[in-house]
Amino acid sequence: MPTKIEWTNETWNPIVGCSKISAGCDNCYAQREARRQIAYKTPHYAGTIADGHWTGKIGTAPESTWTKPLRWKKPRRVFVCSMGDLFHENVPFETIAAVFAVMAVCPDHTFQVLTKRADRMAEFFEWVKNVAWPDLFPHGLPDYPVESNAVLRYAPELHDDGDYCRFIGDFDPAPWPLPNVWLGVSAENQATADERIPLLCQTPAAVRFLSAEPMLGPVDLEIIDFGEKGWIRIRDVLLRGFAGSTLTNETLDWVICGGESGPGARPMHPDWARALRDQCQTAGVPFFFKQWGAWHPIYGSGRPRGDEETEIKPFAWVDPTGKTSASGTVPDALMLRVGKKRAGRILDGRTWDEYPEAKL
Asked: Which of 195, 260, 322, 325 is nearest to 26 (CA)?
């Protein structure tokens, strides 16, 4: 469906459903949208929500959804599984492979896959190394009979002999990484960045990206813990990869940053966004500032001037660690809740709409 998400053009949801995994999930917008889809009686959302929350049940979309990218004539950036997590533990590897199969036969589109489950993403790529794609899809996409083979119907020109499985077999083992697929992890604070970024950097991808949204604490990319590889400075990760690595492109290529919006939104300290932007500028990495979210800073950092504090409601102080209170001290920032639209996406006088280029 068309989307208002600033860094993409379209969303594509062959699977839906999820479960919460960290603090960044607390006010999940997709969970709210899934409740609406259930109210609309959209069949494949049935059971994905109970008592207003994700259940972990995964719904598979109808064939018409799976084949949408094949019918798009104009190239576009496509956010994959905005209504779930493609690498959720309840999504079979065979289903994940089917999603990659569709992306493989749509080279004109750029697919952006974002996950909080970097560990399972790494497991999938280990599993798929040993998979013979024609054996995996003897009848086209899973659950769809061969006589309704979607790829044959919508993209017959892609096949020498009309054999979908043979065409997919040409991608065995892909080639990995697929040049039109960007892989990213979402990290809301330093702890989740430490957990997910090293796994992402060791996963084959044409472009790797970080989405620090909702940003609930500072993220310093210069002190990411890469385990046995030690603490790697951002310039080492972004420009040269790991020292002594057999791969040459273990890098981050793009950073997205944004505050939280919607009911229960938590404020983002402006210095967190500035620090992440400055790190990217130093390393020459594209930076995209998506939004302030529901809260916008007043007078930058520090106390408000005069007695104007009494006129600003609702407001909250947010300190550099992310704690909020009714009163603050320098270098706390005073944040005013104005809503996503009014808060906008201007950081230090300008928008930041930088994008990466594929390395392949």
From this structure: 260
